[in-house]
Write a structure and sequence with these properties.
116 residues; Metalloregulator ArsR/SmtB family transcription factor; rod-shaped; ArsR-like_HTH; mainly alpha; single chain; HTH_ArsR_DNA-bd_dom; 67% helix; WH_DNA-bd_sf
Amino acid sequence: MTDQLSRVFQALSDPTRRDLVARLAVEGDASVGDLAAPYDVTVQAVSKHVKVLEDAGLVSRSRDAQRRPVHLEAEVLDLMTAWIERYRTQAEERFSRLDAVLATEDERRGEEGAAS
């Protein structure tokens, strides 16, 4: 997979990774050990999830003495928001045009019914 948007959607296709992102958004930076605490999986398994998020650009790790806190790169979520918003807007415009056609058709049928 080459583009970042595809990597981000793929990374977030896993519920554990979505939960990690949600927790980082609410609680702020955390170590992999802290992130792994609520799960019934190994720290290594959570570390692999973090690696997938890191490869997608959703999180980064910095150095803080002995710790390597995981940081959410929230601006990457803007890519997803922009992509979804573009298609949501197009869908709304199509539904608005369909509503207008149906309203015109209802009006025409009402006029035909009144004339007969």
